[in-house]
Design a protein that fits this description.
alpha+beta, globular, binds zinc ion, Aspartate Aminotransferase, domain 1, 286 residues
Length: 286
């Protein structure tokens, strides 16, 4: 998969990025600097963006792409090497057996469908999912508790999920970037976007008006409200408390199978009607 037009600098950087998959922009720049040094190329941080564009042009034919984003929680700029043909999990999360991928899908389901927009599940709920695996032919797939525990660790080590200090599993930046297409196509409206940056949001703030769709990343909110004495919602203009949160790791829940089935329509898109009773309940910050 050597793309034409790549120099040794491109190749060395790509190699380093492939083993990491996702890194902060600071780390990426550092690697770029060291690679330039090794190949006697001139290092200019102003040129990094162009360098990434060149890589993306070369990677286009093999359906890979460097994507930039800001970490959902910290706002730190990150860059990830992603698969652009991400409709199916198997195309993205390679290196797992079919049973392991099925477990991965169940975990995604439970996290995305978690009640009250918590977008996380407890370790107990995660292990519980391992007992309900079936393949397309409805044949039961066996995954022991011990195997499931080891696999959960591997998913975290491979940067697909984040494990909080309280032991809750949530989506990582790698998942959000690489599984973007899959998540949107599978879960429809259940996958929400930040009102300001339009990227997927699973951790941040929400409008206290239940019917309002405004969701903001913490870092997007602080930038947007910086010069506002009385912050108001960018969508409905009601007062913005900043205290109604989504993606809480201390609120661990997973919907029952029945709820989940009801919310997923036949074509895989999500219908969230009748699921908003508790939306205006304020939650304390972690
Ligand atoms: Zn945002
Ligand atoms: Zn609003």
């Amino acid at each position: 998969m050597v793309a034409s037009g790549f120099t040794d600098t491109h190749r060395l950087f790509l190699q380093a990025a492939m083993s990491r998959r996702i890194m902060t922009e600071v780390v990426a720049l550092d690697i770029y600097a060291r690679v330039c040094q090794a190949t006697n190329d001139r290092f200019d941080r102003e040129q990094f963006s162009d360098f990434v564009d060149q890589l993306n042009t070369g990677l286009n034919s093999v359906e890979l792409e460097f994507r930039k984003a800001q970490d959902e929680v910290t706002g730190t700029p990150v860059i990830a090497l992603t698969n652009t043909n991400g409709q199916k999990i198997a195309q993205v999360a390679t290196g797992y057996t079919p049973t392991e991928l099925e477990y991965f899908k169940h975990l995604l389901d439970a996290i995305v469908m978690a009640d009250d927009e918590t977008y996380c599940i407890s370790a107990t709920a995660a292990l519980h999912e391992a007992g309900h695996l079936k393949n397309k032919e409805n044949k039961v797939l066996v995954l022991t508790k011990r195997d499931a525990e080891a696999l959960l660790d591997r998913f975290v080590a491979d940067k697909w999920f984040i494990k909080s200090a309280a032991g809750a599993y949530s989506l990582s930046m790698r998942s959000l970037l690489e599984l973007q297409t899959y998540l949107k196509e599978t879960y429809g409206e259940q996958i929400q976007e930040c009102t300001l940056c339009m990227e997927i949001i699973t951790k941040g703030q929400r409008c206290s008006v239940a019917a309002c769709s405004s969701r903001l990343h913490q870092h997007c909110a602080s930038t947007y409200f910086r010069n506002m004495n009385n912050p108001v919602c960018p969508t409905c203009h009601s007062a913005w408390s900043g205290k109604v949160l989504i993606g809480l790791s201390d609120k661990m829940s997973a919907p029952s199978k029945v709820q989940r089935r009801a919310r997923r329509t036949a074509n895989g898109a999500a219908a969230i009607a009748g699921d908003n009773e508790d939306e205006d309940i304020e939650r304390d910050e972690e």
